[in-house]
Amino acid sequence: MKRKNISKTAIVKNSKLDSDNINIKSGAKLSDVFIKAKTIDIDSDVILTNCKIISNDSVTIKKNSEVKENSVINAFNGVFIGERVIIDRDVVIGGMQSEKSKFHIDDDSVILFRTYVNTTRAVHIGKNVGIGGYSLIFTHSSWQNVLDGNSYTFADVRIDDNVWIPWNVTVFPNVSIGKNSTIGGGSVVTKNIPSSVFAAGVPAKIIKKKTNKISLRKKNTIIKEIMTDFSSYASEFLKINNSLKIEKNNVILKFNKHRIVFTNSFNDLKTNDIVCSFKIPAKFKEKFQWVEFDSKSSNNNVEIGKKFLLFLKRYGIRIH
User: Fold this and answer.
1) In what order do the strands lie in the sheet with 66-67?
2) What value, to the nearest 5°, has the Cα angle with vertex 83 and ends 308 and 29?
3) Angstrom distances, CA of residue 238 to CA of 100, 152, 227, 241, 257
4) In the sheet that 21-24 helps form, which strands lie side by side, from edge to edge?
5) How far apart are CA 18 and CA 52, in angstroms?
6) Whole-model pTM?
7) How do strand 140-141 and strand 153-154 relate by DSSP bridges?
8) How many other CB atoms are found less than 10 A from the CB of residue 308?
9) What is the pLDDT of residues 13-38, one digit of tens each?
């Protein structure tokens, strides 16, 4: 039985959707898109532009994700794209297909310009993973006749949460990269990488163990640097006048109608303040717009606050 449910607020322009089961939710925008799958499930506010997505199973794209121009995604056994994912321009995800071909990328992850991901076997990419441009990820390695003694490998690749793979990195089949690890640019990863390490080289080797714990004093210093940088960005690039005041327990960025206030004391706050801190007491969350760094969450509908949240991504701080 065919099922086609496209929201009245979704925009589907110059696109072909080849499926008997289509569900496209509100605010989705599809332009010059080709999708072929058993089921197509596109969540709200997804943006797809001049791209192709092909599967013999389901294609699922969760809300606020984007696939940009000239990208191709092909995985026989299913494509899953989580929330707030970005697949950049000219990315190719596919290659030789098999009954085990599968592609899964979870929330807040990014694959940048002209990266190639081979899906002869399954590729699983976790949450908050960054994959730089011109990188190569393979799930199979064969060409010469194996009966002549040549090597071959067919195996999944798994990249766990919060991994950073910079530009020009190659990942071989049967590799797992553990949570919070960083790979050096230009590296070739041929073996498993454990969690929370920095690895680099050809082939990649563990250089050092990472620690994600820094002192509160150091965190305060970093936030002060970021807000100073945002003050310059707002005035010089956005052309929004502001003044910056750095105190012992507060950093205050004053704009025309609102202030962005980083505070540890929560004193002398004003009605239109956007309050920023590592942990904000509930009583202040009830009174003010806010950004909480430890929980990576916010309650903010002010335009300058939204620009600040976008600016924080430069430093890897992704607030929802």
Assistant:
1) 11-13, 29-31, 47-49, 66-67, 86-87, 110-111, 130-131, 164-165, 182-183, 197-200, 205-209
2) 90
3) 48, 53, 15, 9, 16
4) 3-6, 21-24, 39-42, 58-61, 79-81, 102-105, 122-125, 157-159, 176-177
5) 11
6) 0.90
7) antiparallel
8) 23
9) 999 999 999 999 999 999 999 999 99
> What is the residue whose two structure tokens read 């563990």?
206
State the number of CA atoms in the 13 A half-sphere of 302 facing the CB: 21
Say whether pLDDT at 117 is over 80.
Answer: yes
| DSSP assignment of 161-224 | TT-EE-TT-EE-TT-EE-TT-EE-TT-EE-S-B-SSEEEETTTTEEEEE------HHHHHHHHH
Mean pLDDT of 138-157: 94
Q: What is the pLDDT of residue 161?
A: 97
Dig out the tokens for 23 from the structure. Answer: 């569900």
What distances in angstroms separate CA 15 from CA 33, 91, 157, 161, 234, one per listed residue?
5, 19, 32, 33, 38
Radius of gyration of the CA atoms of the chain, in A: 23
Q: Which of 51, 33, 140 is nearest to 96 (CA)?
A: 140
Closest Cα to residue 51, out of 35, 28, 62, 27?
Answer: 35
The tokens for 73 are: 């995604």
Encode pLDDT of 236-290 as tens digits: 999 999 999 998 879 999 999 999 999 999 988 999 999 999 999 999 999 999 9
Cis peptide preceding 203, ω within 30 of 0: yes
Question: Which pair of tokens denotes residue 197?
Answer: 């390490």
φ and ψ at 147, to 5 degrees?
-75, -5
pLDDT band per the 50, 70, 90 thresholds, residue 133:
very high
Residue 35 to residues 68, 78, 218: CA-CA distances in angstroms? Answer: 14, 12, 48
**Amino acid at site 205:** K
Identify the DSSP state of 7: -
Please name the residue that has the structure tokens 């058993």. 38
Q: Looking at the DSSP assignment, which residues form a beta bridge with residue 94?
A: 118
